[in-house]
Design goal:
Elements (H helix, E strand, L loop, with lengths): L3 H54 L3 H22 L5 H32 L11 E13 L2 E12 L4 E3 L2 E4 L7 H9 L1
Antiparallel strand pairs: 1-2, 2-3, 3-4
Bound molecules: zinc ion (ZN).
């Protein structure tokens, strides 16, 4: 026989069960969100390392802009993490933004590395000091009644290195005697 009392307790029980189910679902969502945010944070720190790398290689406007955007994304992620009302969709959107920024950072790193390869010709091979001047001239010489053109090239670098026709005429200061090495270190 069903009494009013039984109906009351059945209702209470189903409400309690519902509340527990909702809470469990909520916990699940929060855990998932935490995991996503954790992976996003790892992404951010990876990007920061990469940006630091790029900055070391070449102070670039792009790197600066990218690093500002990373800071912004990180702040947003922290806010998302603290805000319990933020949805999975919002976190996913941030994730997509980060993935995009990460691809950009990687492309930038590749560009910088490529540029550095190209620049190697314009740097001292010993210390990396920039090229100051490069000159070419051709000389006409007479050899066994014929006129020959001989090409000469001459490069000077900030460190004092002079290369004339592929030969080092003047040494790079950083690779010089111990005394000049000490001097250049104190500069
Ligand atoms: Zn040098």
């Amino acid at each position: 026989m069903i009494t009013t009392n039984t109906i009351f307790w059945t209702q209470i029980a189903s409400i309690v069960a519902f509340v527990f189910a909702v809470f469990a679902l909520y916990r699940l969502l929060v855990d998932q969100k935490d995991a996503t945010i954790q992976s996003l944070k790892e992404n951010v720190s990876y990007l920061k390392d990469q940006i630091a790398d790029v900055k070391q290689q070449s102070p670039d406007v792009l790197a600066e802009r990218l690093s500002k955007r990373m800071k912004l994304l990180e702040d947003e992620l922290t806010k998302l993490g603290d805000d319990t009302s933020s949805t999975e969709a919002e976190v996913k959107a941030k994730e997509a933004e980060l993935a995009h920024a990460r691809a950009e950072a990687e492309a930038l790193t590749r560009q910088v590395l490529h540029a550095r390869e190209l620049l190697q010709e314009y740097q001292c091979p010993h210390c990396g000091a920039p090229l100051v001047e490069r000159a070419y001239h051709s000389e006409s010489v007479e050899y066994q009644g014929r006129e020959l053109d001989i090409d000469h090239n001459w490069s000077t670098f900030e460190c004092g290195l002079e290369i004339v026709d592929g030969l080092e005429r003047h040494r790079c200061r950083s690779g010089g005697s111990p005394m000049t090495r000490t001097l250049s270190r104190n500069q």
